[in-house]
Amino acid sequence: MTVTITSPATIFELADLAGAMSRVHWSIAKSLARKSSTYAFRADGELIALAGLSPMAIEGGGLVTELWFCPGPHAGPHVAGITRLAKLTLAKSPYRGIYTICRSEAGKRFARVLGFLPAGSSELGEIWAYGGHADREIRKGRDEGAGRGAGEPAAPIAGPDVGRTGDARPA
What we know:
The chain is α+β, with helices and mostly antiparallel strands. It is built from five helices and seven strands; from the N terminus they run βααβββαβαββα. α1 packs across α2. The C terminus is likely disordered.
């Protein structure tokens, strides 16, 4: 079965998979649809998961977002396809920092596979920061001639260019 991704996810997909059975849940679904970049994952036309990037306000400005992921009950057999599409989507994101909060071991495993690294903790769970952008920005600067000769490979980096604090805000 082929997994596909579409964006934006509709408000009805958000409400359906997120279980919007109350006014509060319906309000949350509407807010996510309005304020987030949303993505619907399907296997042979069936909605199997939702994800989104919700911009966050931080001190000092900058494009920073929170990743959220909502797998449906039939997502399990399609994790490889979901992961492949999620990695491609994250790699193209314009955000300076992407963070997610993991509350389960399964969430931590998925975050690590996507390229996130532990960055701190909060009362909601462990905070993980996406490492793909720091690498891309450093390589882009070097590829444009900053500090290396033509044809020389860009040096790898050790981790994300984000703060490693104990709270939810990046440094």
